[in-house]
Design brief:
eleven-stranded mixed sheet, 24% strand, alpha/beta, 5 helices, binds hypoxanthine
């Protein structure tokens, strides 16, 4: 039984260390997920991998079918979801590219995304608790795995989820900083909320790939981000190997 899913973000469209056994196109009431689900073994544990932006990295953050992705995971019997997200750094401890963050809070600035399974078709108003948006047990597992591998991670932080696909203005980042956001990305929500609605244990490994807008002297450089994604995702892969079995 596959119990663990990994959602790959930008720079992680495949998991080189996953020993693939099969691929499956899954259909859900919300449409198709971003790509066929890739089943296999990671560090001796059954795992399933899904690239959030599609197998060829073609789906922008605001067009990801988050509901289909999370529903498909639930449907395959997965109980734990570890997401990988590329982010910009906002507050001082999060500015250096390559920093790995295991966020413990989220602020949602996205809009117009299909963000819930609990619409009026449910025929019953349903709310879920989201005080602690990430699964604490999984966060601690990741933090401890990093510590035993002597890998540095920042074990807390507030993820601010923006709409994209453009990056933010400097004033938007200043506002987010006043709000308490430490890192900024475009895919953290509604994913985390949907996982909570389906009672999946969900956490994120967020990789800082640039200082957020206005946090460095220069403008945001896509070339720089791509370079940092490549080196940073090597660390993420190494961390995933330590974390599994989850
Ligand atoms: N802003 C939003 N999303 C991001 C960034 C950023 O600076 N870097 C990587 N994803």
């Amino acid at each position: 039984m596959t119990t663990v899913a990994i959602i790959g973000g930008s720079g992680l469209t495949n998991l080189k260390n996953l020993r693939i056994t099969r691929r499956e196109v899954i259909r859900t009431p919300y449409g198709e997920p971003s790509a066929p689900m890739v089943f296999g073994q990671l560090g001796g544990q059954e795992a399933v991998f899904l690239p959030r932006h599609g197998a060829g990295h073609t789906i922008p953050p605001h067009e990801v079918n988050y509901r289909a992705n999370i529903w498909a995971m639930k449907q395959t019997g997965v109980t734990k979801v570890l997401a990988v997200n590329a982010v910009g750094g906002i507050s001082p401890d999060y500015l250096v590219s390559g920093t790995l963050v295991i966020p413990d809070q989220v602020i949602d600035y996205t809009y117009g995304r299909a963000h819930t399974f609990f619409g009026s078709e449910q025929k019953k108003v349903t709310h879920v608790d989201f005080t602690h948006p990430y699964c604490e047990a999984m966060r601690q597992t990741v933090i401890q795995a990093a510590a035993s591998a002597k890998m540095k991670v920042v074990g807390r932080g507030t993820y601010g989820a923006t709409q994209g696909p453009r990056f933010e203005s400097a004033a938007e980042i200043r506002r987010m900083e006043r709000d308490g956001a430490d890192i900024v990305g475009m895919t953290g929500m509604p994913e985390a909320g949907l996982a909570r609605e389906l009672e999946l244990c969900y956490a994120s490994i967020s990789l800082v790939v640039n200082p957020a807008a206005g946090k460095a002297r220069e403008a945001i450089s896509i070339r720089e981000i791509e370079k940092n994604l490549e080196s940073g995702m090597a660390s993420v892969r190494a961390l995933l190997e330590q974390v599994i079995p989850l």
